[in-house]
Write a structure and sequence with these properties.
By secondary structure, the protein is mainly alpha-helical. It contains 11 helices and 4 strands; from the N terminus they run H-H-H-E-H-H-E-H-H-E-H-H-E-H-H. Pfam families: EF-hand_8 (PF13833).
Length: about 220
């Protein structure tokens, strides 16, 4: 599961890949959306320098001239990262974790806030972001059904569509879900709370190595 999260970070670097660049301009149906915060406010909020923010904004506008990314556009971009898999479900989960205002668009502020958390945030902040990715309905806990859906979406990412032996895959997903519930549900509540999730991850050397790779994989 952690490998899929690491790969997800490539979505934030999509403008560095020439084949994903867009030549489109904003149309009347997609009016230009400009940042609501001043560059000074963004510097205070994100701990990025003025030059870094300007660079991020230029690359964001290059691919999204309207100043915002729709869910459909996000899914389309994400599909290029996993061309042999089925990306829709996982990319929608990731989209919702960036679109914290629940507006069905990703604005520059949403993107740069996520960048800041993953680069400048503490290990607890970054683990919290991953917990929120698993917490599909954003109610502060991860249920078994949510975990199953997330794991299933990751299997769809990495396995070629049309080549799945359905029954063994479902059994494997069920088994992996049970394993993680057992590990993360420290107090045996029947669900996973953020505090227990973070506590488990901080004590797991494999996860900590993956978190360091996640941070180092983000390039400005």
């Amino acid at each position: 599961m952690w490998q899929a999260v690491e790969s997800s970070i490539q979505t934030f670097n999509k403008n560095r890949q020439p084949n994903l660049s867009s030549k489109k301009t904003a149309s009347p149906s997609h009016p230009i959306s400009r940042p609501t915060c001043s560059i000074t406010d963004l510097m205070k909020k994100t701990n990025f320098s003025k030059e870094e923010i300007r660079h991020l904004y230029r690359t964001f506008k290059q691919d999204s001239p309207s100043g915002q990314v729709s869910k459909e556009r996000f899914v389309s971009i994400f599909t290029t990262l996993f061309p042999t898999g089925e990306c829709y479900r996982y990319s929608v989960f990731l989209f919702k974790n960036i679109d914290r205002s629940n507006t069905n668009i990703i604005r520059f502020e949403d993107l740069i806030t996520t960048y800041s958390l993953l680069i400048h945030g503490s290990i607890e902040d970054r683990l919290g972001w991953i917990f929120d990715l698993y917490d599909i309905n954003k109610d502060g806990i991860i249920t078994r059904m949510e975990l199953f859906q997330l794991i299933a979406s990751i299997f769809q990412l990495i396995l070629p569509v049309g080549k799945l032996n359905y029954t063994p895959i479902i059994n494997t997903i069920e088994q992996r879900t049970d394993e993680l519930i057992h590990a993360w549900d420290i107090h045996e509540n029947g669900f996973i709370c953020k505090e227990d999730f973070i506590q488990y991850c901080l004590q797991n050397e494999t996860i900590m190595r993956s978190m360091n790779k996640l941070k180092s994989g983000i390039c400005l």
